[in-house]
Design goal:
The chain is α+β, with helices and mostly antiparallel strands. It contains eleven helices and 37 strands. The strands form nine sheets. The protein has a seven-stranded mixed beta sheet. The protein is globular and about 75 Å long.
Length: 702
């Protein structure tokens, strides 16, 4: 079998570059390098249009030197100059990714996103598809101190307008000021300009800090709130982009686009998710951004951000460069069979669920995408979870962030919708979305509700589990996916209060054949496991698993013996770990043993599924490799197995299910917004060629 790939090339794109485009929205010039790589570089090297919008000028204290250096103490404040140096650093890093030359020349010109509001448009002369838009809004200048003149202040209504601060030499000569609506409109205009198939932002609902800051507690009432571990500009940039997407897509515009929200500073509090090779590459890019080589770029303002300098892997930024995590990690459960055996796949595009279905059970091509599921009352968060009930109908679960407009409080809630039948066109039909609320009733705390993991018991009871505000696991259950019981909290380790955060985003759950509920969750130091003492009972925390920390979300899959396996990436290695309790039937008191597979590179959750039938029990796993492509592997045990031939580049998590002929089927959402599939040639065999699922989209209403 093929060995894993290496290097920084893109591999096989999902489709021709003309059929895809990438839009990255960041707050400061270094955000995309720290938090969105390696995805950013793969999009730049794909040849497709790749646009990064930097919302603030990043002027900070106006001194282009490390804070404790002798140069810093004697340097005069020059905020326009430092803003220009940072954008030069971002240009250098992007040029290095695109051409291998950090001094490759750029052109810059003014662009009006809104009439009368000019921003800077930069494009790389040797690769004009690589573009930067520099809005130049004043930054908050503090990570968490509530300052009225900031994007957060504008979002909360503490100020009516936020001024810009053009960098030295900018073609945008006159500073302007934006209202909240004008920023939203400008971002919506950018979506229209790029017409993206992939949108990447920072985290709009970050993790709170363990203690409130004095500055926050003493701030004016309108600026008060919880203190967070992320930079306030990161959060505000993502929230403004959420509002822009809601406004733009509310008009029914744009080709299908997926969204990814990247965690910022809190990656310092989680195990590293990237291996040594990816981390070294990030270091090279940060050195280019930080002007470590002191190259002459021809700009007296400076050619990079010397506050970062050659220290991207040191100090406070060390964890940021070693980790890439998304706020909504998703699971493999977005593909499931309908009553008649045809597979149906579901994904969130333009904030709504879209559906593809096999035309015939066990065969291609597929049809879609269809808007078979109605509006959830606003854009859904990026992933959707699908469960199949014992009667063969499907139920979808997701989360919805409600923005603070029209008298609504800013909050997040879980939502679900049930299948009501199948239309004459063979497409499943669904009823109205229902809110399951959130484990935390307080709106501000509800924003940290995690991505749901679901499991269905033999009697049809659906269990939904999420990470809550405090970092615990909450569960809500409903017989037949309705008549929902109140939220219940799972226990956590005894003794002193658990560290903050206890549970990292990326939990999973399953119900074993006896009806016991298993739950797994990554923490900073290990993986926790809960299991029901008896069928249907609330899961209880097992004795310590002894498992090494996870660099990704954790997937649970049946072990074929009545228990569960945990599948995840080792921290800092990207190596896939398959762990099982060292005892019979997943006994709670057993220690866990580990089998490690040949590293495939990449990052993120590894999909896992147990194929059954014909006397065989085969484990299928699928992961992202170091070029952003999907790579599968399958066998009948947890023994070492090589990866199969890589497929296309994708976003989200691979979906996996068993077709009507007992064969494994993998699906991914391509970077062009289309569904791609591969199927085993026979049960347990290698997967065949990857191809677009829908050869045509007749009947599609997207």
């Amino acid at each position: 079998m093929d060995s894993p790939s290496t290097g920084t090339t893109t591999g096989k794109p999902a489709s021709d570059s003309a059929n895809q485009a990438y839009l990255h929205v960041i707050a400061h010039a270094d955000d995309s390098i720290y938090f969105m790589n390696p995805d950013l570089e793969q999009s730049i090297r794909s040849g497709a249009l790749s646009v990064t919008v930097c919302m603030t000028s990043g002027e900070s204290d106006g001194r282009n030197a490390p804070g404790k250096s002798p140069q810093f103490k004697s340097m005069r404040t020059d905020r326009p100059g430092f803003a220009r140096a940072r954008i030069n650093g971002l240009r250098a890093a992007n040029a290095l990714m695109a051409t291998g030359d950090d001094n490759s020349p750029w052109s810059v010109e003014p662009v009006e996103l809104l009439p009368g509001f000019r921003s800077e448009l930069h494009y790389l002369q040797a690769a004009p598809h690589v573009q930067l838009i520099y809005m130049g809004l004043c930054e908050a200048r503090y990570v968490s101190v509530p300052r009225p003149v900031s994007m957060r202040g504008l979002w909360l209504g503490a100020i009516k307008e936020l001024p810009t601060l053009p960098g030295t030499g900018s073609p945008v000569r006159m500073p302007r000021a934006y209202t909240r609506d004008q920023i939203i409109d400008a971002l919506a205009a950018t979506i229209a300009r790029v017409n993206p198939t992939v949108i990447r932002t920072l985290d709009p609902t970050p993790m709170h800090a363990p203690r409130e800051t004095v500055a926050m507690m003493s701030a004016p009432t309108i600026l008060r709130g919880l203190s967070y571990l992320d930079h306030q500009d990161h959060t505000s940039s993502a929230q403004f982009m959420q509002a822009a997407m809601e406004r733009y897509w509310g008009g029914g515009r744009g080709r299908p686009a997926s969204v990814s929200n990247y965690i910022g500073y809190p990656t310092n509090y989680t195990p590293p998710s990237l291996d040594a090779a990816a981390t070294r590459r990030n270091s090279q890019l940060l050195n280019a951004y930080g002007w470590a080589d002191h190259r002459d770029c021809g700009d007296a303002a400076g050619c990079g951000d010397l506050k970062v300098g050659p220290n991207g892997l040191k100090g406070g930024g060390a964890g940021w460069a070693r980790g890439t995590r998304t706020r909504t990690p998703g699971t493999a459960r977005w593909l499931a069979p309908l009553k008649d055996g045809r597979l149906a796949a579901f994904a969130v595009l333009n904030g709504s669920v879209r559906c593809w279905v096999e035309r015939e059970a066990g065969k291609g091509p597929w049809a879609g995408p269809f808007d078979a599921v109605g509006s959830a009352g606003g854009p859904l968060d990026p992933q959707v979870e699908v469960v199949r009930l014992p009667d063969g109908t499907l139920q979808l679960f997701g989360t919805r962030t409600v923005l603070p407009f029209k008298g609504q409080k800013h909050h997040k809630e879980l939502v679900c919708v049930s299948q009501t039948g199948v239309g004459a066109d063979g497409v499943p039909k669904f009823g109205a979305w229902t809110s399951l609320g959130a484990p935390d009733a307080a709106p501000e705390k509800s924003l940290e509700t995690g991505y749901p993991a679901t499991a269905v018991a033999p009697d049809g009871t659906v269990h939904v589990l999420v990470r809550n505000w405090a970092g615990d696991i909450a569960m809500r259950s409903g017989k037949g996916g309705k008549a929902w019981q109140p939220w219940q909290l799972l226990d956590h380790p005894e003794g002193k209060p658990p560290p903050h955060p206890l549970v990292v985003e990326g939990i999973d759950a399953l119900v074993d054949p006896s009806g016991r509920i298993h739950v797994a969750a990554p923490t900073a130091k290990t993986v926790l496991h809960w299991v029901s003492p008896a069928p249907g009972e609330l899961p209880k925390l097992s004795t310590p698993t002894g498992l090494p920390p996870s660099g990704s979300a954790v997937s649970l899959v049946a072990d074929g013996k009545g228990g569960a396996l945990a599948v995840y990436r080792g921290a800092g290695t990207a190596q896939v770990t398959v762990a099982s309790p060292n005892g019979s039937s997943g006994a709670a008191e057993a220690a866990w043993k580990v089998a490690r597979r040949t590293p495939a590179g990449g990052y993120g959750r590894v999909s896992a599924y147990r194929l059954n039938g014909g006397g065989a029990s085969l484990l299928v796993i699928a992961a992202r490799d170091d070029q952003g492509r999907v790579v599968p592997a399958s066998d009948g045990s947890a023994r070492q197995t090589a990866w199969e031939t890589p497929g296309v580049q994708f976003v989200g998590i691979p979906g996996v299910a068993q077709d009507s002929s007992g064969r494994g089927v993998l699906v991914v959402l391509g970077t062009d917004g289309q569904l791609y599939t591969a199927r085993q040639t026979r049960p347990g065999a290698r997967f065949g060629e990857w191809g677009a699922a829908a050869q045509e989209s007749a009947g599609s209403r997207v």
